[in-house]
Write a structure and sequence with these properties.
By secondary structure, the chain is α/β, with parallel strands linked by helices. It has 10 helices and 14 strands. Bound molecules: uridine-5'-diphosphate-4-deoxy-4-fluoro-alpha-D-galactose.
């Protein structure tokens, strides 16, 4: 039986594909290539280009293949874009996830792994934040994922269907062997943007806010290496095979770094003292978002390999260098 990966041409999806293919699984990828890249899809997987919102297309995918589990990445992920165009997010993330769940229930696919996000916590008052903390998203993006989690919970109670939702913290870095990485255009993530500045593709890096109530006044985040996150999906698949139990699980390392600490690491690793400038706070930024990670270690056989900020940055820079040197 096959594992269906939606959004396998994207950043986290393409890293997860490598893990799942390495494990010898039979994999089918569905991606519409709207933001992902065909080259990022592991050649061992069968690729079907199409939109998960296309009912007839997805119906055929489920009818033509014997699918054991779905790993569902496909969706939209840019918070400011979700504020400008919330209905796009409710369609791509919420409505399409509802349809994916329905396809699974109709075709007796009982295992579902879902890309969720720490954005569900909004501005948590306690840090590290654990999975029982209230859902309190502050953006349409966060709401779209939060509603998806609710649907998964209700569906798992009503049908013979189980899910693991992985709540990602700040995902960064790239495959250590340079097979894939973050190629997203106009990326806004701190480590990606800082790597672009270090390699001379930006004149300066703006630091959003200097007066937060944190040790150095800048925001604190829990940065997780994308390959460790990818491995967590494979662990989630094993967990669902062992026990038919649904879970929501934080994916982070439980260590927070401030923006200034990240920038100093990027400067040190790259050897480039690029320009930075303080500016106003970015709307919707929480001072501190750090994962409580006991649950992932209790429920999944997950052993992170890259829990090291310098290594995350090193791999991110290597990838940035690679894509820039091969760009036309
Ligand atoms: N930052 C800057 N300058 C930049 C980019 C970012 O100062 O050029 C700061 C931000 O203000 C924030 C921190 O760096 O304080 C991290 O920002 P990111 O944009 O890298 O990411 P966030 O942690 O805000 O959000 C990310 C994803 C969300 C996800 C969240 C989960 O973008 O989709 O992690 O924690 F929900």
């Amino acid at each position: 039986m096959a594992i269906l990966v939606t959004g396998g041409a994207g950043y986290i999806g393409s890293h997860t594909l490598i893990e799942v293919c390495d494990a010898g699984e039979d994999v089918i990828v569905v991606d519409n290539l709207s933001t992902g890249f065909k080259e990022a899809i592991d050649s061992r997987a069968k690729f079907l280009q199409g939109d998960i919102g296309d009912q007839a297309f997805m119906q055929r995918v489920f009818e033509d293949h014997s699918i054991e589990a779905v790993i569902h990445f496909a969706g939209s992920v840019i918070v400011p874009e979700s504020v400008e165009n919330p209905l796009l997010y409710y369609r791509n993330n919420t409505e399409n996830t509802r349809q994916m769940i329905e396809h699974c229930v109709t075709h007796q696919v009982k295992k579902f792994i879902f890309s969720s996000t720490a954005a569900i916590y909004g501005m948590p008052e306690e840090c590290p934040v654990d999975e029982t903390y209230q859902r309190n998203p502050i953006s349409p993006y966060g709401h779209s994922k939060s509603m998806s989690e609710l649907m998964l919970e209700d569906a798992s109670k009503a049908y013979d269907f189980n899910f693991i939702a992985l709540r990602y913290f700040n995902v960064a870095g790239a495959d250590p062997m340079g097979r894939t990485g973050q190629s997203t255009k106009n990326a806004t993530h701190l480590i990606k943007v800082a790597c672009e500045a270090a390699l001379g593709y930006r004149d300066e890096l703006l630091i959003f806010g200097s007066d937060y109530d944190t040790s150095d006044g800048t925001c604190i985040r829990d940065y997780i290496h994308v390959s460790d996150l990818a491995a967590a999906h494979l662990c989630a698949l094993s967990a669902l095979r062992k026990t038919a139990q649904s879970e929501i699980i934080n994916c982070g390392y439980g260590t927070g770094y401030s923006v200034l600490e990240v920038l100093s690491t990027v400067k040190k690793v790259s050897g480039v003292d690029f320009n930075t400038r303080f500016t106003d706070r970015r709307a919707g930024d929480s001072p501190q978002v750090v994962a409580k990670c006991s649950k992932i270690h209790e429920h999944l056989d997950w052993i992170p390999k890259y829990n090291n900020l310098s290594l995350i940055v090193e791999h991110a820079i290597e990838w940035e260098r690679k894509i820039r040197s091969s760009a036309p």
